[in-house]
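Sequence and fold
=================
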Amino acid sequence: MTKSELIALLASRYPQLAVRDMDLAVKTILDAMTQTLAAGQRIEIRGFGSFSLSSRSPRIGRNPRSGEKVMVPAKQVPHFKAGKELRERVDAVYLKEQSLAAASATK
């Protein structure tokens, strides 16, 4: 789902609110999350998951075009860990689809 699809979904669920307001709300939330991670803090949304930063140490990489060795510096990268409720809901949908596929394959 893209940001514009999320805004459209929210606008359809809440027709009393303007699309412009939904756009501003989504952008504000994403900006706040970006600023929080950039400040080195952790974000936890109960039932959904948590965002944190993981450290990657410096390493020697390879330029795929030329094959030349390149020094890749250390960096911080965002990491998402799904919450228990999200994992269970995704697994339930997956298992349901698998059982439907198995049932149709046996016919």
